[in-house]
Amino acid sequence: MPIDRPVVISYVDDDKETVLKKRTFVTSLQAAGILTVNRTRLSSSSKMSWSSSASRSSSPATHSYRLYFYAEVDLLNGKERSMTNEELIEELEKLVDKEEKIEEVLYYTNPLNGWQLYKGAVKPCSWLASWKGSVHHAYIVFETKSWWWSIEKNDAGIIIQRSKQIEFVRDMHVRVRRKENRATGIGCEKSKTATNKTVKQLIEHIHEKGYVNEMYHALEKNCQEFADKIYEFL
């Protein structure tokens, strides 16, 4: 349910790690259509005010050049880490079973707002294309022997989630319900059996390609482009 009153989030006296966590949380609320941003230029003593809306803000978000890993996203107090590309391999190797094999890969999409008539990766016909059917969020869900995972890119960074239940990574983004509407919702566009890749190989691939260091761009370096590359690799 959208928040029906202004909310002020202060960064005063926050350290860098706390600021990044707050921004990631707020970005997840934006993606779910719960908040939009009224943003002023930030300084060390600045505040941000937020108002409710059903669509995402047009204001640019601050890209953190970090990967956020939610090791137990189905738990309110589950393990969470954020890391740079340089820290990626060392940090994730402490948290995951590196040799765990990826068994199945699924490519999911969901709409960005409440008025899209469709959001599929394939446009059904030319006259519907004007309704922005290709405008959608895309992300990858994959299964290993012990876990369900999701990996995606947004305007804050790269997010990896892990849970014992698929619902917490497929239907939720950092414990907030993914955006849906009456016409369309969360859908699996395609799936495949993984090509004998391990979690370690995925981590190394992300590191070697430098995806964490890539700036988010709405038309080029966006969630769909990232999901396409990860799906192809796996």
Brief overview:
By secondary structure, the protein is an alpha+beta fold. Helices cover 21% and strands 26% of the residues.
Poorly predicted sequence stretches spanning 5 or more consecutive residues: 1-5, 38-60, 127-132
Mind describing the biggest β-sheet?
A: 7 strands, mixed
Helix content: 10-25%
**How many strands appear in the DSSP assignment?**
12
Whole-number tally of structural domains: 2
Q: What's the gyration radius in Å?
A: 18 Å
> Which structural class do you get from the secondary structure elements?
alpha+beta
Distance between the termini: 36 Å
Listing every helix as H and every strand as E from the N terminus to the C terminus, the arrangement reads: EHEEEEHEEEEHEEEHH
- Give, in spatial order, the strands making up the sheet with the most strands: 5-4-9-8-7-6-12
Which percent range describes the beta-strand content? Answer: 25-35%
pLDDT averaged over residues: 76
Shape: globular
> How many helices?
5
